[in-house]
Amino acid sequence: MTEKNPWTILGIGPTTDEQKIRQAYLTQVRQHHPDLYAKNSLARHDHEEHMKWINWAYSEVMKNRFVVEINKEDAPDPREPSHQEPPPLSCRMHHRPVVRYCTKCQSPLCPSCIGFSLSLCSTHFRQWVNAKFRRRVYREWGLLFILIAISKLLSWSFPTLLWSLLGYLAILGIIELRRLRYFGCMAWLFIPYSLVLAGLYSLYEGLSRWNKELGDFTD
Questions:
Q1: Helix, strand, or coil here: 102?
Q2: For residues 147 and 190, what is the distance between their CA atoms, to the nearest angstrom?
């Protein structure tokens, strides 16, 4: 019985070029991902089986790329039928069964992967978190600067500006308390300055988390 050859599955010859291997893997994934055949259950099943072989081949090639034996005569004929059962597909990082794939790069994911709930690999999940806090900073700080600019344009008095800023911070505080699930504590509602402090904390937290995620992503 002829065994499956990972190079044949990926459609390239033996090489130690990691970029070339990665490109061949992504090419195969784009052609055989089961979601492309969602309307045809039979074709989807066939491509699900083929995807198992593609991921197995990529794992084998990456694991043994530095001990490649470049001998084309030993490569099996891809036209020969094979009855070998596909190996079980598991996550390369956590060694758990693969359940889904990253929607951005089609990397296999298991329930232990950090971005599993969003169907994102670790890299794209960090990008998503960074974008999330960036939007929060732009929204919260942007409205604060717009409020100050309007006060300058309309020549508000200092007390008017102060009360406007306190009101804006109180609104941010209410949003922050709801985000932290502290809003159910009625004591917060009887201490007005607590809402303002929560608003200031919201401005600080959004900016600090964005800086932290940005630093982690660039490391």
A1: coil
A2: 26
Pair 10, 25: CB distance under 8 Å: yes
Q: Model-level pTM?
A: 0.49
Token digits of residue 91: 């996550």
Measured from the Cβ of residue 53, the count of other Cβ atoms closer than 10 Å reads 21
Question: Residue 28: is it exposed, middle or buried by C-beta count within 10 angstroms (0-12/13-18/19+)?
Answer: buried
At 148-203, the pLDDT tens digits run: 999 989 999 999 999 999 889 888 888 887 777 665 555 555 566 677 888 888 88
Cα separation, 217 vs 219, in Å, equals: 6
Quick one: tokens of 50? 């083929």
> For residue range 119-158, what is the model confidence (pLDDT) as tens digits?
888 888 888 888 888 898 898 899 999 999 999 899 999 9
The whole-angstrom separation of Cα 138 and Cα 52 is 43
Q: Which residue(s) pair with 97 in the sheet?
A: 90
List Cβ neighbours of 159 (8 Å cut-off, separation of 6 or more). none
136's tokens: 């929060």
Neighbours of 160 (CB within 10 A): 12
Residue among 60, 67, 43 at smallest CA distance from 8: 60
